[in-house]
Write a structure and sequence with these properties.
Number of strands: 7
Structural class: alpha/beta
Number of helices: 7
Radius of gyration: 17 Å
Largest sheet: 5 strands, mixed
Oligomer: single chain
Order of helices and strands: HEHEEHEHEEEHHH
Helix content: 25-40%
Mean pLDDT: 84
Distance between the termini: 17 Å
Strand order of the largest sheet: 3-4-7-6-5
Shape: globular
Low-confidence stretches: 1-17, 19-38, 247-260
Length: about 260
């Protein structure tokens, strides 16, 4: 076995152990406590703001995300992910949400801003996925609104040095439906990604019809790139399963700190 294979295997085993440990911790908590979602399962929830509805070709993507996580790692995931509104207290029940779109969203209301601020203050992770990075309308507007939520936060590029690129797979760059920039951008808290900005349309790469076909073409590298996008999605999920959410309810914050300092 080569050095690279040993490193990859060590990372995979460590990441899987982290996810399973998180699930075990959640199972031991009182039922009224919320941690890592219901029964410790990863839930790629879609965040809705304003009058937005979750519809279109990407509606299958969150379920596919969960399926890939379970198939590749055996970590728990909801196979029928949910949606949540930014001003709904249910946003605080689980540590992850995806805010995506093609067009510029309307400004967040005061209640939506406060809801997202509380979610992030508790340690939640928000993925902002631009479905039309060719125009960048959604991404630009979303950044403007996030700046209201976290006025002291500033996004910086993150790449292979960051835990998101090595929480399960060792990735060289970020990709989605389009290749996009090699790095993601993120607002960090304590060195850990809290709001992650993708200009790649990750959900577009994951979308799959009931017949098993993919409704959106991945460019420029087709199915090879789609596979790499799936790996990025798995990495994000493993990062979420091992991150610290609601410090008073999750008892393994050292796991994320340890992973953040490991060498790739």
């Amino acid at each position: 076995m080569s050095k690279e294979e040993r490193v990859s295997r060590r990372e995979a085993i460590s990441a899987l152990g982290c996810a399973l440990s998180a699930a075990g911790i959640a199972a031991l908590l009182p039922q009224k406590a919320w941690a890592f979602g219901e029964e410790g399962a990863f839930n790629p929830r879609i965040l809705l703001t304003g009058t937005a509805r979750w519809e279109g070709v990407r509606t299958s993507a969150p379920g596919r995300w969960s399926e890939e996580l379970v198939r590749r790692t055996s970590a728990p995931a909801r196979l029928s992910p949910t949606t949540v509104r930014a001003d709904n207290p249910a946003l605080l029940a689980e540590p992850f949400a995806i805010w995506g779109g093609e067009d510029a969203p309307p400004p967040l209301t005061e209640r939506e801003t406060l809801g997202l601020r509380r979610f992030l203050a508790l340690g939640g992770v928000l993925l902002v996925d631009d479905f039309a990075p060719e125009s960048g309308a959604f991404g630009k507007a979303a950044r403007r609104e996030i700046a209201k939520v976290l006025p002291d936060g500033s996004a910086i590029p993150i790449g292979t040095e960051n835990v998101l690129f090595r929480s399960f797979y060792l990735l060289r760059r970020a990709v989605g439906r389009i290749e996009g920039p090699p790095k993601l951008e993120a607002i960090l808290r304590g060195g850990i990604p809290q709001v992650v900005f993708s200009s790649h349309d990750l959900l577009g790469a994951l979308a799959r019809s009931a017949s098993g076909t993919h409704p959106l073409v991945v460019v420029p590298d087709g199915e090879v790139q789609r596979e790499l996008a799936s790996r990025l999605a798995v990495n994000v999920a493993m990062f979420v399963l091992c991150s610290n959410y609601k410090d008073d309810q999750v008892h393994a914050p050292f796991l994320m700190r340890r992973r953040a300092t490991e060498s790739p």
